[in-house]
Amino acid sequence: MMKTAIAILLLLIFVFSSSNSVAAHDYAVLDINGDELRMGQDYYIVSAWGSGGGVNLFKERNQTCPDQVVGEKCDYLPGTPVTFSNPNTDSTDDHPVYTSTEINIKFNDVELPTLCSDRSMVWKVGDYDESTGQWFVTTGGVEGDSQAWYGKFQIQPAGRNSYKLASCPPIDDRHPHIVSCSSVRRLSTGYYQPYRLVLISDQHWPAKRKGEEWSVKFIKASDIDNIKQVVDV
To answer: Do residues 105 and 42 touch, judged by C-beta distance below 8 A?
Structure first.
C-alpha cells in the first residue's frame, strides 16, 4: 500500500512540475501526455500544481448515500476516475473533448451501498445555498439531456498547460444569483474534511467564503492503474 502511494505521488509530482510542450491544437483538451481527451474514456482529474489530489465522491456522517463531489487534500490520492460525454446526445462516440464546449462528467468504478445502487453518478450543480451564496457540485445529474443545464460543465484553459472546470447556467429571473460561466472552486470545510467543489455566484460574498481558485490536469486512468499493478507485484 505504501509503495503504491509513493509511486502515485511520484506520478502526481510529474504532473505538477511538467511543462507540457504540446500546444492545444484545435483547442482540444490535452492530458499530461499531450494526448487529446476522448469522450467515453476514463481519466483522473487532479490538482495541477501540487496543492491537493484528485476529485472523489464523499458523504457526511448524517448522509445515507454519498453525493458530494470533493477534492482530496492529500497529493498522492488521485481520487475516482471520470468519463466525459456530450450532454446534447446519448452517443458514446470516441470524440475529442474541446475547451469551452458543454460536457457531462460522470464518476466511474464507484462502489455504492446496495441502498444507493440506483443513484446517478453524473455531476450536476446543486440547488442554490442561500446561507453560503454558493452552488455545491454534487452527483445526481442526467446524462445526455440537452435541457438539463445544471448537468453541463466546461473545461477552460487556465494557463501553464492547465485547465479549470466551469459551468455556464442560463441568466434569467429564475436564477438571479448566478454569474455567467462561473469557475468551479475548492472550499475548505474543515481540517480533516476534503475540499467541497463549489460554484460561486454573488460577487459580494467575503473572499474567505468564495473558495480557492483551482486549476487541474487530466491523467488517463490506465496510467495510474498500470503503476498500481507494477508496484503491487
So the answer is: no
Split at pLDDT 50, 70, 90, the class of 171 is low
Q: Are 137 and 58 in contact (CB under 8 A)?
A: no
Cell of 23: 500546444
How far is residue 51's CA from residue 75's CA, in Å, rounded to a whole number? Answer: 7
Q: At CB < 8 A and 24+ separation, what contacts does 205-209 make?
A: 205/132, 205/133, 205/134, 209/132, 209/133, 209/134
Task: Sort 213 into a burial class: Cβ within 10 Å, 0-12 / 13-18 / 19+.
Answer: exposed
Cα-Cα-Cα-Cα dihedral sign, residues 70, 71, 76, 82? positive
> Residue 44 in contact with residue 224, Cβ under 8 Å?
yes
Q: Is residue 122 a contact partner of residue 142, using CB atoms and an 8 Å limit?
A: yes
* Eight-class DSSP state of 231: H
For 9-57, the pLDDT digits (tens) are 444 444 444 433 333 444 899 999 999 999 999 999 999 977 789 999 9
Quick one: which of 173, 193, 169, 171 has its CA closest to 181? 169
The length of the chain, given as a count of residues = 233
Match 504532473 to its residue by C-alpha cell.
Answer: 15
Please give the Cα distance from 143 to 146 (Å, whole number). Answer: 9
pLDDT bucket at 176, cuts 50 / 70 / 90: low
pLDDT band per the 50, 70, 90 thresholds, residue 160:
confident
Q: How is 12-58 classified by DSSP, letter by letter? A: HHHHHH-------GGGB-B-TTSPBPBTT--EEEEETTSSS-BEEEE
